[in-house]
Design brief:
273 residues, hypothetical protein PF0899 fold, 2 domains, flat, alpha+beta, Major capsid protein gp5 fold, single chain, 5-stranded mixed beta sheet, 30% strand
């Protein structure tokens, strides 16, 4: 029989410990607009148009007319529908010897898909060309970023969020001091505190020396509902796999993350070094 591929306990165990399986525990999906109606096949393309309009409102005296018109335009972008897929293999004997090793592998499959989509969502925010300077004052940089987003309405800051790398947290906390308030109602993985009415989150694989400030409208995540799982196990494995008692599990997700409204995302640059 072929040697097992997974590292398993060969004797009695009293306790099992599973290491952190995700690159960042901060789930970015609540911070984007979700569209669950994605159809199509991997490799197909989806076109996203980002629309803007010029100002055409004028104050006119009697007998005067408008000298300009509102002009709407859009910038097209094309995205490929992505297939995120991973594979986990194990032997029947491994399952019988140490089921926790197999459970860990299966959990990592879900975590891997989670990490890949998170990375692509964050990558879309970073594309924004809107920037604010946080080198002199982090607080001023965050407030300036909010002003650039310029969302009118009741408490717009409550719907605005900021994401920072943990290595930059010390500098942020030292400068903001009492202006960074911890609000229990917003407690979740990655939550650091609230500043200027805006929630600040730490993401350990974010870009260092950059704070992303955005609103959910900035990025749209097109997803095909559900995660496809294909279990090539005892009932449907090939004769070769059956002969050596090999099981294979495929997990896949179809999605597209797209920056659809650049006006709702800002990069705040911190002091280098």
């Amino acid at each position: 029989m072929a040697d097992p591929k997974n590292t398993i306990y060969s004797n009695f165990v009293l306790e099992n410990e599973i290491e952190e399986l995700v690159a960042s525990r901060l789930d970015l999906q609540p911070f984007v607009t979700i569209d669950n109606a994605l159809e199509g096949q991997p490799g197909m393309q989806i076109k996203v148009n980002t629309y803007t309009a010029t100002d055409g409102t004028e104050v006119l005296a009697m007998g005067e007319g408008n000298t300009k018109s509102i002009v709407a335009s859009y910038t097209p972008a094309t995205y490929d529908i992505k297939t995120a897929q991973n594979r986990f293999e194990y032997y029947d004997e491994e399952l019988y010897t140490d089921p926790t090793a197999i459970e860990t592998g299966i959990q990592k499959q879900a975590a891997g898909l989670f990490d890949k989509m998170n990375a692509d969502v964050y990558g879309e925010w970073i594309k924004t060309t809107q920037t604010a300077n946080g080198s002199v004052s982090i607080y001023d940089g965050l407030v300036d970023a909010q002003a650039l987003i310029n969302e009118e309405g009741d408490n717009p800051a409550e719907m605005t969020f900021a994401i920072v790398h943990p290595k930059d947290l010390a500098a942020v906390r030292k400068e903001l001091k009492d202006t960074l308030q911890y609000v229990e109602a917003f407690a979740r993985d990655g939550y650091v505190g609230t500043v200027a009415g805006m929630n600040l989150y730490a993401k350990k694989n974010a870009t260092e020396k950059t704070i992303v400030v955005a609103r959910p409208e900035a990025v749209k995540l097109f997803v095909k509902q559900g995660t496809e799982v294909e279990n090539v196990g005892k009932d449907n494995r090939s004769e070769t796999a059956a002969n050596i008692r090999l099981n294979t599990i495929f997990a896949r997700k179809y999605y597209v993350a797209a920056l659809v409204d650049e006006t709702k995302a800002v990069r705040v640059t911190l002091t280098a070094g």
